[in-house]
Amino acid sequence: MDARFDLFDNEIAMKFAKRFANAALVIDQSPLPKATQHLVEIRASQINGCGFCTDMHTKDAAAAGETPIRLNLVAAWREATVFTEAERAALALAEEGTRLADAHHGVSDETWSQVRKYYDDDQIAALVSLVALINAANRINVIVRNPAGSYEPGMFASMTS
Question: Which domain holds residue 33?
Fold first, then answer.
């Protein structure tokens, strides 16, 4: 499978990607736990059907030490016993923030209350920003049909500066 459009061979797309990567760096350097960041990226990517991002974020999570059991159960997190209550709150926010068109009220008060229970203001800022950023990345990659499977952890590290 080939992409419809090579974002990596376009000057405008690469300028945007560099700025996008720098925005992601802000979140990466935030106090939001890295495991939570990975779980949110994976779950939103699964919902959006973004193979490219699902491939990238599962491999990055594995390289960071995430267990295969947890990676395999992200899509079924509600029925799995391997996630903390804080991670469950973040995954609920990721799902509701990703499925805005499916629920006219957006993120529920119950989910927001759970997020407030487990995360401080800086972590919430990072979590909300992460949900927005991963959804944007999913849309970019789905639109151009970037194929999944060839990502290697860290291969985009040089994009930040």
Answer: 7-151
